[in-house]
Amino acid sequence: MPRFAFSQIDVFTARPGYGNPLALVHGAAGLSSDKMQHFAHWTNLSETAFLLPPTAPEADYQVRIFTPKSELPFAGHPTLGSCHGWLAAGGVPKGEFIVQQCQAGLVKIRRDGRRLAFAAPPAAQSDIAPQMQARIARILGIEAADILATRSLSATRPGWTGVLLKDRAAVLALRPDFAALGEMELGVVAPHGADGVDFEVRGFVNDVGGEDPVTGSLNGGLARWLIGAGIAPARYVAAQGTALGRAGRVHVAHDGEEFWIGGESVEVISGTLSL
Predict the structure, then answer these.
(1) What residues have CB less than 8 Å from 63, skipping those under 6 apart?
(2) Domain range list for the chain
(3) Mean pLDDT, the chain, as a whole number?
């Protein structure tokens, strides 16, 4: 039975046991898609990633990303965790940026001290119909008047829907109806304003078991919305995972061209596995 190098990396934190964990299989070119999906189901983490040689000449490595149920074209915390693992295994980028190849295309990643940050892929955003806002309020168990604003953060479906509430306490008090959530993906945000944190975020999606600890793709969509609407400054820090005891920190920066979504990562498990 083939053996593969394996690591588990906590992303959006510098402390083991916090942030969002990623299972990462190195040198996975010999694995079939079915094997990858089966292993991702077995790990039962929100995402499991598999490192492969790139096929695009510009890329430094290729990654495939799976939830326990399906493959994703792109996801944020697996992007940063895979990059961390690739660098830790001796990977050397070809140029100024690290370039990841995934099903969504090529993603730039930059190093910023101890943090890695990815350039959020472009996403078309749009307004939410009033009747959908009423449904969102029912799912979240709040009054429609408690919602300050909403925004569709992606043209893909289901895709993240952003929901702005008044303050951190309102976000942390949410107890969603996950049966009513169905295939919707709700990212809820509110001003934080303490402990060096600007916003509190929670991400609700049934595909990862109800609530995602810390979500790079959601924070990328929120950054485009909040910065573009003048709600957030060009650089800010978001907390996510507070309600789950994960204490994740997402560092957001808009340089006028790219929206960079970053954070620290730490390897907590390394070894080999047989698949």
Answers:
(1) 49, 50, 51, 52, 78, 79, 82, 100, 101, 102
(2) 3-120+262-274, 130-257
(3) 95
Q: Are the CB atoms for 186 and 210 separated by under 8 Å?
A: no
Instruction: Rounding to the nearest 10 degrees, give the CA dihedral for residues 213, 217, 219, 222.
Output: -130
- Burial (CB count <10 Å: 0-12, 13-18, 19+), residue 125: middle
Domains 3-120+262-274 and 130-257 are alike in CATH topology: yes
Q: Looking at the structure, give the CATH architecture of the domain made up of residues 130-257.
A: Roll (3.10)
Cα separation, 238 vs 223, in Å, equals: 10
251 Cβ contact list (under 8 Å, min separation 6):
112, 115, 117, 235, 237, 260, 261, 262, 263
- In tens, the pLDDT along 67-123 reads 999 999 999 999 999 999 999 999 999 999 999 999 999 999 999 889 999 999 988
Say whether pTM exceeds 0.70.
yes
Q: What percent of the chain clears pLDDT 90, i.e. is strictly above it?
A: 91
pLDDT band, residue 158 (cuts 50/70/90): low
Q: What SS3 state is found at 122?
A: coil
pLDDT of the residue at 193: 84
pLDDT at position 155, please? 57
| CA–CA gap between residue 82 and residue 95 (Å, rounded) | 18
Is residue 213 within 8 A of residue 240, CB to CB? The reply is yes
Q: Which CATH number fits domain 3-120+262-274: 3.90.1300.10, 3.40.50.10350, 3.40.80.10, 3.10.310.10?
A: 3.10.310.10
